Amino acid sequence: MAKTLVSFPPVARGDVILQARGISVGFGDVTIIENLDIDLRAGEVLGVVGASGTGKSVLLRSIIGLLPRRSGSVKVYDIDYDSASSDERSAVDRNWGVLFQNGALFSALTVKQNIQVPMREHLKMPQTLMDELAKIKIEMVGLSPDAADKYPSELSGGMIKRASLARALALDPDIVFLDEPTSGLDPISAAEFDSLLKKLCSTLQLSAFMVTHDLDSLYAACDRIAVIGQKRVLVEGSLTDMLAFDDPWVQDYFKGKRARRLIDAVNV
What we know:
Layout: E1 16-27, E2 30-41, E3 45-50, H1 56-63, E4 71-76, E5 79-80, H2 86-94, E6 96-99, H3 111-122, H4 127-140, H5 157-168, E7 175-179, H6 187-204, E8 207-211, H7 215-221, E9 224-229, E10 232-237, H8 239-244, H9 248-255, H10 260-267
């Protein structure tokens, strides 16, 4: 049976493109996040931060359906993901890309083949066209053409992140989820990745949900910030909102010794 074509309504920059409500996730007797609400707006890079163990990555994985939720709902373009038809869910899956913390590239596949995995899963097209599209994605993320035939073991940490981003962009999604994309990178590589992400989001009109611990990434790449703590979103908004929020961890994080650049940026 042919699949029904699912189209998404047009959205303007700033409109809510993804809405999570009442999200609760736990393991056994331990509840990680509880009754959490969070939105992603069209065209923004949302930075999600919090202390270690507060559930940032758990939240991301629960939103995209990799972890079961005890309660709560996720809507993308007003489509309830849990109650969506198979055609609607498939359309949503094609419309977002994911970059996992360690890249999660398939070690037995080349960069080109890794990028083509989503294409093979969701699309039907000749190999020559997939090769051409993979080439475009490789160039888009700043990798040299010869990276296409390299295996993950032959790549540097920065190249792995870029290759993983190319795979996340394989299907031209509207939304990208990034889990600690600059983790393990040196400061120069991390700054280059932040700049690349910001440029791609602007050029391709992407919306990005980025879990991070990197203060420089918050300054360089993010339009808005959400702080996870006490199993929920403690505060969300601009850097100015973060600095004004009266919570010990938030104050230590955003006003600590490593946060001078953020404070200077707000005070300019």
